[in-house]
Amino acid sequence: xxxxxxxxxxxxxxAQDAGAAKAGVTGNWEISWEGPQGVMTRKAEFKQxxxxxxxxxxxxxxxxxxxxxxxxxxxxxxxxxMTRGEQTFRQEFKGTLKDDGTIVGTLAxxxxxxxxxxxxxxx
Length: 123
Prior knowledge:
The protein is of the alpha+beta class. Helices cover 18% and strands 63% of the residues. An eight-stranded antiparallel barrel has the order 1-2-3-4-5-6-7-8.
């Protein structure tokens, strides 16, 4: 009986993840994370084609294209590189597309690692 319950629970969780992944990430998003100056919120535009993710994020200096974007199942990842003067600043976003349609993950940069969230927005 317990084995059947565990198998059923695992099947439901897999179906929920598959449902979120099937919905994809194409569209307009609001990305937020806690930075040294408080909560940072940026607009993002994503386009998913299979496992390839393209798009851009809006920052203080305008829009920046994402690089190395991938969607594998419910896992989402992309890199943002910004150049200021002679320096290139790299941010690596990794997250999971949740059943409620949000993305939650980690943002790694030279300043450390923080948690980020993404929610779909309508324009």
